Amino acid sequence: MNFAALGISAAEPVSGGCIHRCYRGERDGRAVFLKLNEARFVDAFAAEAEGLAALRAAGCRAPEPLAHGSVGASAYLLLEFLDLRAGGDLSALGSMLAALHRRQAARFGWARDNTIGATPQANGWCESWTMFWRERRLAPQLALAARNGYRIDVPPVWRLLEGHEPAPSLLHGDLWSGNTGFLPDGAPVLFDPAVYYGDREADLAMTELFGGFPGEFYCAYNAAWPLASGYQQRKPLYNLYHLLNHLNLFGGAYLTQVRAALRLLARSL
After folding, report:
1. 140 pLDDT more than 90
2. pTM
3. 3 state DSSP class of 23
């Protein structure tokens, strides 16, 4: 990669996930964070920049998107560099997420499709949350799993959403601990979003999928905006989407978890 073509100097590789190549560099006297991948990722980077801008507009601390596009055979996303730590003010993180979810729309979805990890994520607008979750979330993942050779028998689990009428809240969309960090003063930061307007419970459910966040986070969130009754029954349905995505991205090691989630959901029907 010709970093000079982007006005970047002193570029050094840094960790930044399992999908893209990441670098810290200098541009116009400020530290920047650069993501690189094949040219086919140009739209995914544009969608990520839009998602970060949406988080920031809603009052969240998130890296400022500076530029995105393609140079030669590479797509790039250039961001503000933030010096992040793994630990910080978890109560502030919970309160910030509740404030994000207060930003709402008239329908479910987003103005463009984006990605969940490296998987395309369809976001076409829907009036019905049940229809959105069935058609925009579960159906594409199940179809991809079938193409990948996985046989999965799925009962009509979306019926668990019948009668549940959430407001369309702005969601981070891929909210696990690896997509959060903290500034040196402890202030929370969100990054790597897959934004759309949906049920806020979907964000909370994912925070519990891979080990969960510490209790201070949930206490602060519920103090700001308590979750509705029935969340515990809906949580496995929302996390089924992410388990299916991990199955499609990383292989059969996740098939047991997918089938266990489906058995749990079937007992609730």
Report:
1. yes
2. 0.96
3. strand
Give the separation between CA 43 and CA 190, rounded to whole angstroms: 21
Q: How far apart are CA 111 and CA 78, in angstroms?
A: 22
Residue whose entry in the numeric block shows the structure tokens 């970047």: 8
Token duo for residue 38: 């094949």
47, pLDDT greater than 80: yes
Catalytic residue among 89, 174, 192, 203: 174
Backbone angles phi, psi at 46, to 5 degrees: -65, -40
Q: Which two tokens stand for residue 137?
A: 């979330």
Q: What is the largest CA-CA distance in the chain?
A: 58
Cα torsion 27, 28, 30, 35 to 10°: value is: -20
H helical segments located in the chain = 42-57, 90-101, 129-132, 139-147, 200-207, 215-224, 231-250, 255-268
Residue 212 backbone dihedrals phi, psi, to 5 degrees: 80, 160
pLDDT digits 0-9 by tens, 184-222: 999 999 999 999 999 999 999 999 998 889 999 999 999
**Residue 215 burial (CB count, 10 A):** 10
At residue 134, the 3 state secondary structure works out as: helix
Q: Which residues of 119-149 are buried (b: 16+ CB within 10 A; e: fewer)?
A: eebebebbeebbebbbebbbebbbebbeeee
In terms of residues, how long is the chain? 269
Instruction: For residue 189, give the 3-state DSSP assignment.
Output: strand
In angstroms, rounded to a whole number, what is the distance separating the alpha carbons of residues 169 and 106?
Answer: 9
Question: Per-residue pLDDT averaged across 94-117, rounded?
Answer: 98
Is 43 a catalytic site residue? no
Token pair in block for residue 140: 């594409």
Handedness of CA 3, 7, 10, 14 (dihedral sign): negative
d(CA 4, CA 1): 9
DSSP 18: S
